[in-house]
Predict the structure of Phosphoribosylformylglycinamidine synthase subunit PurS.
Amino acid sequence: MCKVNIYITLKEAVLDPQGKAISQSLKDLDYDGVNDVRVGKYMQVELENRENAEQKIEEMCRRLLANPVIEDYTYTIEEVV
C-alpha cells in the first residue's frame, strides 16, 4: 500500500483573490513581512500497491483533481508499512 500526497496550486499567472484577502488580513493583524499568500488544495490518496502509482496519479490529476488550465500539481508517494 502507498500514500500519495497531492498539492494543487494556482498557476503563477492566475490571480488568487482568496490569497490576496488572507495576505491583507494578516497585515491588518500586524503580521508584518508577509509579501504574498497563495491558496491551494492538499489531498491524500491511498493506493493498494505502488505498481503504476505515478501513472495513476497523473491520470487522476489530469482528469479530475486539478484543472490543468489554471492549476499546477505536484505529489509525493510514500510506502505505508
